[in-house]
Specification:
With 131 residues, this protein is mostly helical. Helix content is 44%, strand content 5%. Strand 1 (60-62) and strand 2 (68-70) form a beta hairpin. The chain starts with a helix and ends with a helix.
Length: 131
Amino acid sequence: MNPLYHANSCVKRWGGKPEDYQAIHDWFDESKIAVANFRHRALRHHAFGIFECEKVFGHFIVNSDGKKVPVRLIGEQHVREDCGGKIPSFEDWVENIKPQAWMSRGYDIHEERVLTSRDDDTYEEYTHGQK
């Protein structure tokens, strides 16, 4: 959904003008610059993203009708409109990412436990200048 349509939806719900809400909806969809399909939503279209939006824009805005509108509610509306009425968690998005070897430093992604730097002998060698 285009950010302008989200803004118009806010006007129907809380009044004011689309411009009152546009920056918030642009922020949610800014990730389209990197991924030009629905997968861009994994960056901000979830509960954590809504709270991050609130950090950026404050707890509320005052629309052109003078009404205080909670930013969290605006974010929730945006996410619900794009995600079939649901507000997913960040985990909902990432649990559906197909793991690749490069994502875990090249270790076998099917291992029960992924090695950490403390488990890896080469880490000590590199950090102590032996290699």
